[in-house]
Automatic annotation (TrEMBL):
GO terms for molecular function: metal ion binding; oxidoreductase activity, acting on CH-OH group of donors. The keyword Isomerase does not apply. It comes from Trepomonas sp. PC1. This is Glycerol dehydrogenase. It comes from the Eukaryota.
Amino acid sequence: LGAPQRYVQGRNATKEIGKYLTDCNNILVIGGKRGIAAIQQDFENSCNQLKINTHFELFQGECCEEEINRISTLVQKMKFNGICGCGGGKSIDTAKCVASINNIKCFILPGIAATDAPCSALSVIYTKEGVFQRVEFFSKSPDLVLMDTQVIVKSPVRTLVSGMGDALATYFEAEQAFLSDSMNCLNGKSTLTGQIIAKACYQTLLQYGMQAKISNEAQAITKQFEAIVEANTLLSGLGFESGGLCAAHAIHNGFTAIKETHSMLHGEKVAFGLLVQLVLQNTPDQIFQEVLKFCKAVNLPTNLRQLGVEKVTDEQLMLVAQIACAQGSSIHNHSFNVDELQVVDAIKLADLMGQ
Ligand SMILES: [Zn+2]
Protein backbone atom coordinates (compact mmCIF):
# COMPACT_ATOMS: atom_id res chain seq x y z
CA LEU A 1 0.00 0.00 0.00
CA GLY A 2 1.39 3.40 -0.98
CA ALA A 3 0.20 6.83 0.15
CA PRO A 4 1.51 10.38 0.45
CA GLN A 5 3.23 11.18 3.74
CA ARG A 6 0.53 13.79 4.46
CA TYR A 7 -2.81 14.62 2.80
CA VAL A 8 -4.40 18.00 3.60
CA GLN A 9 -7.67 19.29 2.19
CA GLY A 10 -9.89 22.27 2.91
CA ARG A 11 -10.92 25.83 2.13
CA ASN A 12 -7.83 28.10 1.97
CA ALA A 13 -5.53 25.23 2.99
CA THR A 14 -2.65 26.97 1.17
CA LYS A 15 -2.59 29.62 3.93
CA GLU A 16 -1.05 26.97 6.20
CA ILE A 17 1.36 25.44 3.68
CA GLY A 18 4.47 26.50 5.63
CA LYS A 19 3.93 24.13 8.53
CA TYR A 20 3.78 21.13 6.18
CA LEU A 21 7.07 21.92 4.42
CA THR A 22 8.98 19.99 7.06
CA ASP A 23 12.80 20.19 7.10
CA CYS A 24 12.83 22.60 4.15
CA ASN A 25 13.96 26.23 4.20
CA ASN A 26 14.45 26.79 0.48
CA ILE A 27 11.53 25.79 -1.78
CA LEU A 28 11.15 25.85 -5.54
CA VAL A 29 7.55 26.13 -6.77
CA ILE A 30 6.81 25.19 -10.39
CA GLY A 31 3.52 25.55 -12.24
CA GLY A 32 1.76 27.22 -15.14
CA LYS A 33 0.75 30.89 -15.03
CA ARG A 34 -2.73 30.19 -13.67
CA GLY A 35 -1.56 27.48 -11.28
CA ILE A 36 0.99 29.81 -9.68
CA ALA A 37 -1.35 32.83 -9.63
CA ALA A 38 -3.96 30.82 -7.72
CA ILE A 39 -1.66 30.11 -4.75
CA GLN A 40 1.35 32.48 -4.83
CA GLN A 41 0.10 35.08 -2.34
CA ASP A 42 -1.01 32.60 0.35
CA PHE A 43 2.05 30.41 -0.24
CA GLU A 44 4.51 33.28 0.18
CA ASN A 45 2.77 34.74 3.24
CA SER A 46 2.80 31.39 5.02
CA CYS A 47 6.45 30.72 4.15
CA ASN A 48 7.58 34.23 5.10
CA GLN A 49 6.16 33.76 8.60
CA LEU A 50 8.28 30.64 9.03
CA LYS A 51 11.37 32.11 7.30
CA ILE A 52 11.17 29.63 4.43
CA ASN A 53 12.66 30.98 1.20
CA THR A 54 10.49 30.52 -1.93
CA HIS A 55 11.20 30.83 -5.64
CA PHE A 56 8.44 30.57 -8.27
CA GLU A 57 9.45 29.21 -11.67
CA LEU A 58 7.14 29.12 -14.69
CA PHE A 59 6.72 25.57 -16.01
CA GLN A 60 7.37 25.28 -19.75
CA GLY A 61 4.32 23.13 -20.50
CA GLU A 62 5.52 19.56 -21.00
CA CYS A 63 6.76 16.85 -18.63
CA CYS A 64 9.73 15.88 -20.83
CA GLU A 65 13.45 15.12 -20.35
CA GLU A 66 14.43 18.67 -21.39
CA GLU A 67 12.17 20.34 -18.81
CA ILE A 68 13.09 17.86 -16.06
CA ASN A 69 16.79 18.58 -16.71
CA ARG A 70 16.22 22.35 -16.78
CA ILE A 71 14.42 22.33 -13.41
CA SER A 72 16.96 19.87 -11.95
CA THR A 73 19.83 22.18 -12.88
CA LEU A 74 17.99 25.04 -11.18
CA VAL A 75 17.57 22.93 -8.03
CA GLN A 76 21.30 22.14 -7.92
CA LYS A 77 22.40 25.70 -8.68
CA MET A 78 20.15 27.35 -6.11
CA LYS A 79 20.37 24.52 -3.55
CA PHE A 80 16.63 24.00 -3.08
CA ASN A 81 15.80 21.32 -0.53
CA GLY A 82 12.16 20.96 -1.56
CA ILE A 83 10.11 21.25 -4.75
CA CYS A 84 6.43 22.01 -5.05
CA GLY A 85 4.41 21.22 -8.17
CA CYS A 86 1.19 23.20 -8.49
CA GLY A 87 -1.67 23.48 -10.99
CA GLY A 88 -2.05 20.80 -13.67
CA GLY A 89 -0.84 17.22 -13.94
CA LYS A 90 2.23 17.85 -16.07
CA SER A 91 3.93 20.31 -13.69
CA ILE A 92 3.07 17.94 -10.83
CA ASP A 93 4.64 15.00 -12.68
CA THR A 94 7.75 17.09 -13.43
CA ALA A 95 8.07 18.03 -9.73
CA LYS A 96 7.94 14.32 -8.78
CA CYS A 97 10.73 13.50 -11.25
CA VAL A 98 12.96 16.37 -10.12
CA ALA A 99 12.43 15.49 -6.44
CA SER A 100 13.40 11.88 -7.10
CA ILE A 101 16.52 12.73 -9.16
CA ASN A 102 17.81 15.22 -6.56
CA ASN A 103 16.58 13.34 -3.51
CA ILE A 104 14.67 16.35 -2.15
CA LYS A 105 11.18 16.63 -0.65
CA CYS A 106 8.18 16.68 -2.96
CA PHE A 107 5.03 18.72 -2.28
CA ILE A 108 1.97 18.62 -4.54
CA LEU A 109 -0.70 21.37 -4.76
CA PRO A 110 -3.14 20.48 -7.58
CA GLY A 111 -5.31 23.24 -9.03
CA ILE A 112 -7.96 20.77 -10.23
CA ALA A 113 -9.45 17.46 -9.06
CA ALA A 114 -9.44 15.95 -12.55
CA THR A 115 -7.46 12.74 -12.02
CA ASP A 116 -6.20 10.44 -9.28
CA ALA A 117 -2.53 10.98 -10.20
CA PRO A 118 -1.42 13.50 -7.49
CA CYS A 119 -1.08 10.96 -4.64
CA SER A 120 0.74 8.35 -6.73
CA ALA A 121 4.46 7.55 -6.92
CA LEU A 122 4.61 7.72 -10.70
CA SER A 123 4.95 10.27 -13.52
CA VAL A 124 4.06 10.07 -17.20
CA ILE A 125 6.92 11.30 -19.39
CA TYR A 126 6.36 12.73 -22.88
CA THR A 127 8.68 13.94 -25.64
CA LYS A 128 8.92 17.72 -25.87
CA GLU A 129 6.47 17.49 -28.80
CA GLY A 130 3.92 15.89 -26.44
CA VAL A 131 4.08 12.24 -27.54
CA PHE A 132 3.78 9.65 -24.75
CA GLN A 133 7.19 8.16 -23.91
CA ARG A 134 7.06 6.13 -20.70
CA VAL A 135 5.82 5.87 -17.12
CA GLU A 136 8.45 6.54 -14.46
CA PHE A 137 7.92 4.79 -11.10
CA PHE A 138 9.47 6.22 -7.89
CA SER A 139 10.41 4.47 -4.68
CA LYS A 140 8.71 7.20 -2.61
CA SER A 141 5.21 8.73 -2.65
CA PRO A 142 4.92 12.56 -2.40
CA ASP A 143 5.65 14.10 1.02
CA LEU A 144 2.48 16.18 0.83
CA VAL A 145 -0.65 16.45 -1.30
CA LEU A 146 -2.59 19.59 -0.44
CA MET A 147 -6.01 20.26 -1.98
CA ASP A 148 -7.10 23.87 -1.42
CA THR A 149 -10.82 23.63 -2.18
CA GLN A 150 -11.02 27.44 -2.51
CA VAL A 151 -8.76 27.02 -5.57
CA ILE A 152 -10.37 23.79 -6.86
CA VAL A 153 -13.92 25.18 -6.74
CA LYS A 154 -12.95 27.87 -9.25
CA SER A 155 -11.71 25.35 -11.83
CA PRO A 156 -13.97 24.26 -14.72
CA VAL A 157 -16.79 21.88 -13.69
CA ARG A 158 -15.77 19.57 -16.51
CA THR A 159 -12.47 18.81 -14.73
CA LEU A 160 -14.24 17.69 -11.54
CA VAL A 161 -16.64 15.52 -13.58
CA SER A 162 -13.72 14.00 -15.49
CA GLY A 163 -12.08 13.23 -12.14
CA MET A 164 -15.27 11.39 -11.20
CA GLY A 165 -14.96 9.36 -14.41
CA ASP A 166 -11.41 8.36 -13.48
CA ALA A 167 -12.52 7.55 -9.91
CA LEU A 168 -15.58 5.61 -11.08
CA ALA A 169 -13.38 2.93 -12.63
CA THR A 170 -11.15 2.53 -9.57
CA TYR A 171 -13.34 0.11 -7.62
CA PHE A 172 -14.16 -2.10 -10.61
CA GLU A 173 -10.54 -2.30 -11.74
CA ALA A 174 -9.21 -2.90 -8.21
CA GLU A 175 -11.82 -5.59 -7.58
CA GLN A 176 -10.98 -7.45 -10.80
CA ALA A 177 -7.22 -7.21 -10.15
CA PHE A 178 -7.81 -8.56 -6.64
CA LEU A 179 -9.93 -11.48 -7.86
CA SER A 180 -7.23 -12.54 -10.31
CA ASP A 181 -4.41 -11.98 -7.77
CA SER A 182 -2.71 -9.56 -10.19
CA MET A 183 0.03 -7.09 -9.36
CA ASN A 184 -0.98 -3.55 -8.36
CA CYS A 185 0.78 -0.37 -9.59
CA LEU A 186 3.40 -0.69 -6.82
CA ASN A 187 4.40 -4.09 -8.19
CA GLY A 188 2.90 -5.88 -5.19
CA LYS A 189 -0.28 -7.73 -4.32
CA SER A 190 -3.37 -5.75 -3.36
CA THR A 191 -4.19 -5.31 0.33
CA LEU A 192 -7.60 -5.50 1.97
CA THR A 193 -7.14 -1.81 2.80
CA GLY A 194 -6.71 -0.95 -0.88
CA GLN A 195 -9.92 -2.82 -1.71
CA ILE A 196 -11.92 -1.09 1.03
CA ILE A 197 -10.66 2.33 -0.08
CA ALA A 198 -11.64 1.57 -3.69
CA LYS A 199 -15.13 0.53 -2.56
CA ALA A 200 -15.50 3.70 -0.46
CA CYS A 201 -14.50 5.69 -3.54
CA TYR A 202 -17.38 4.23 -5.59
CA GLN A 203 -19.92 4.68 -2.78
CA THR A 204 -18.87 8.31 -2.29
CA LEU A 205 -19.35 9.04 -5.99
CA LEU A 206 -22.85 7.56 -6.04
CA GLN A 207 -23.81 9.40 -2.88
CA TYR A 208 -22.38 12.89 -3.50
CA GLY A 209 -21.38 13.10 -7.18
CA MET A 210 -24.42 14.95 -8.47
CA GLN A 211 -24.56 17.47 -5.62
CA ALA A 212 -20.81 18.06 -5.88
CA LYS A 213 -21.17 18.89 -9.55
CA ILE A 214 -23.94 21.41 -8.81
CA SER A 215 -21.84 22.85 -5.95
CA ASN A 216 -18.97 23.36 -8.38
CA GLU A 217 -21.31 25.12 -10.82
CA ALA A 218 -22.32 27.46 -7.98
CA GLN A 219 -18.67 27.75 -6.82
CA ALA A 220 -19.85 26.58 -3.40
CA ILE A 221 -17.53 24.59 -1.14
CA THR A 222 -20.09 22.23 0.37
CA LYS A 223 -19.57 18.96 2.26
CA GLN A 224 -20.61 17.17 -0.93
CA PHE A 225 -17.99 19.04 -2.95
CA GLU A 226 -15.29 18.28 -0.37
CA ALA A 227 -16.31 14.60 -0.43
CA ILE A 228 -15.87 14.34 -4.19
CA VAL A 229 -12.55 16.21 -4.22
CA GLU A 230 -11.35 13.62 -1.68
CA ALA A 231 -12.84 10.71 -3.64
CA ASN A 232 -11.28 11.87 -6.93
CA THR A 233 -7.87 12.51 -5.41
CA LEU A 234 -7.21 10.45 -2.28
CA LEU A 235 -9.64 7.50 -2.38
CA SER A 236 -9.17 6.94 -6.09
CA GLY A 237 -5.43 7.65 -5.90
CA LEU A 238 -4.80 5.05 -3.22
CA GLY A 239 -7.39 2.72 -4.71
CA PHE A 240 -5.87 2.56 -8.19
CA GLU A 241 -2.22 2.49 -7.14
CA SER A 242 -2.60 -0.08 -4.38
CA GLY A 243 -5.56 -1.93 -5.93
CA GLY A 244 -4.45 -2.23 -9.53
CA LEU A 245 -5.74 -1.40 -13.02
CA CYS A 246 -7.65 -3.54 -15.55
CA ALA A 247 -9.55 -3.07 -18.83
CA ALA A 248 -11.01 0.43 -18.28
CA HIS A 249 -7.59 2.13 -18.37
CA ALA A 250 -6.30 -0.18 -21.12
CA ILE A 251 -9.26 0.78 -23.32
CA HIS A 252 -8.64 4.45 -22.47
CA ASN A 253 -5.09 3.99 -23.76
CA GLY A 254 -6.48 2.47 -26.95
CA PHE A 255 -8.76 5.45 -27.56
CA THR A 256 -5.85 7.90 -27.35
CA ALA A 257 -4.91 6.61 -30.84
CA ILE A 258 -8.21 7.89 -32.29
CA LYS A 259 -7.67 11.56 -33.06
CA GLU A 260 -11.37 12.45 -32.74
CA THR A 261 -11.09 11.75 -28.99
CA HIS A 262 -8.13 14.07 -28.41
CA SER A 263 -10.30 16.86 -27.03
CA MET A 264 -11.68 14.47 -24.38
CA LEU A 265 -10.19 14.45 -20.88
CA HIS A 266 -8.53 11.38 -19.31
CA GLY A 267 -11.45 10.56 -16.99
CA GLU A 268 -14.02 10.98 -19.75
CA LYS A 269 -12.33 8.25 -21.79
CA VAL A 270 -11.84 6.09 -18.69
CA ALA A 271 -15.59 6.30 -17.93
CA PHE A 272 -16.47 4.84 -21.34
CA GLY A 273 -13.61 2.35 -20.93
CA LEU A 274 -15.32 1.21 -17.73
CA LEU A 275 -18.61 0.55 -19.55
CA VAL A 276 -16.64 -1.62 -22.00
CA GLN A 277 -14.94 -3.42 -19.09
CA LEU A 278 -18.32 -4.12 -17.47
CA VAL A 279 -19.46 -5.73 -20.74
CA LEU A 280 -16.25 -7.78 -20.96
CA GLN A 281 -16.60 -9.08 -17.41
CA ASN A 282 -20.29 -9.87 -17.94
CA THR A 283 -21.42 -7.68 -15.04
CA PRO A 284 -25.04 -8.15 -13.88
CA ASP A 285 -27.32 -5.69 -15.65
CA GLN A 286 -28.29 -4.02 -12.38
CA ILE A 287 -24.70 -2.87 -11.76
CA PHE A 288 -24.17 -1.86 -15.38
CA GLN A 289 -27.32 0.26 -15.20
CA GLU A 290 -26.19 1.84 -11.91
CA VAL A 291 -22.90 2.95 -13.48
CA LEU A 292 -24.62 4.09 -16.68
CA LYS A 293 -27.19 6.12 -14.74
CA PHE A 294 -24.43 7.85 -12.78
CA CYS A 295 -22.49 8.72 -15.94
CA LYS A 296 -25.58 10.20 -17.56
CA ALA A 297 -26.51 12.15 -14.43
CA VAL A 298 -23.14 13.92 -14.17
CA ASN A 299 -22.68 14.15 -17.94
CA LEU A 300 -19.84 11.69 -18.55
CA PRO A 301 -19.69 10.23 -22.09
CA THR A 302 -21.47 6.88 -22.41
CA ASN A 303 -21.15 6.26 -26.15
CA LEU A 304 -18.74 6.84 -29.02
CA ARG A 305 -20.57 9.89 -30.35
CA GLN A 306 -20.20 11.62 -26.98
CA LEU A 307 -16.50 10.69 -27.06
CA GLY A 308 -16.24 12.72 -30.25
CA VAL A 309 -16.35 9.77 -32.67
CA GLU A 310 -19.34 10.36 -35.00
CA LYS A 311 -18.70 7.47 -37.36
CA VAL A 312 -16.44 4.62 -36.38
CA THR A 313 -14.89 2.01 -38.67
CA ASP A 314 -14.02 -1.58 -37.73
CA GLU A 315 -10.39 -0.70 -38.48
CA GLN A 316 -10.47 2.09 -35.89
CA LEU A 317 -12.02 -0.19 -33.29
CA MET A 318 -9.40 -2.83 -34.07
CA LEU A 319 -6.65 -0.25 -33.53
CA VAL A 320 -8.13 0.61 -30.12
CA ALA A 321 -8.32 -3.10 -29.28
CA GLN A 322 -4.75 -3.79 -30.40
CA ILE A 323 -3.36 -1.07 -28.14
CA ALA A 324 -5.62 -2.15 -25.27
CA CYS A 325 -4.49 -5.78 -25.64
CA ALA A 326 -0.77 -5.09 -26.17
CA GLN A 327 1.70 -7.17 -24.19
CA GLY A 328 1.97 -5.94 -20.60
CA SER A 329 -1.34 -4.04 -20.80
CA SER A 330 -3.47 -3.89 -17.64
CA ILE A 331 -6.29 -5.56 -19.60
CA HIS A 332 -4.51 -8.85 -18.90
CA ASN A 333 -5.05 -8.35 -15.16
CA HIS A 334 -8.52 -9.88 -15.42
CA SER A 335 -9.03 -13.46 -14.28
CA PHE A 336 -10.25 -14.33 -17.81
CA ASN A 337 -8.45 -13.99 -21.14
CA VAL A 338 -9.28 -10.93 -23.23
CA ASP A 339 -8.49 -10.78 -26.95
CA GLU A 340 -8.85 -8.05 -29.55
CA LEU A 341 -12.09 -9.32 -31.11
CA GLN A 342 -13.73 -9.47 -27.69
CA VAL A 343 -12.75 -5.83 -27.09
CA VAL A 344 -14.13 -4.69 -30.47
CA ASP A 345 -17.46 -6.41 -29.80
CA ALA A 346 -17.63 -5.15 -26.20
CA ILE A 347 -17.11 -1.57 -27.44
CA LYS A 348 -20.00 -2.05 -29.90
CA LEU A 349 -22.34 -3.31 -27.18
CA ALA A 350 -21.31 -0.65 -24.63
CA ASP A 351 -21.82 2.03 -27.30
CA LEU A 352 -25.37 0.83 -27.99
CA MET A 353 -26.27 0.36 -24.33
CA GLY A 354 -24.99 3.87 -23.63
CA GLN A 355 -27.15 5.65 -26.23
ZN1 LIG B 1 -6.71 7.26 -14.52
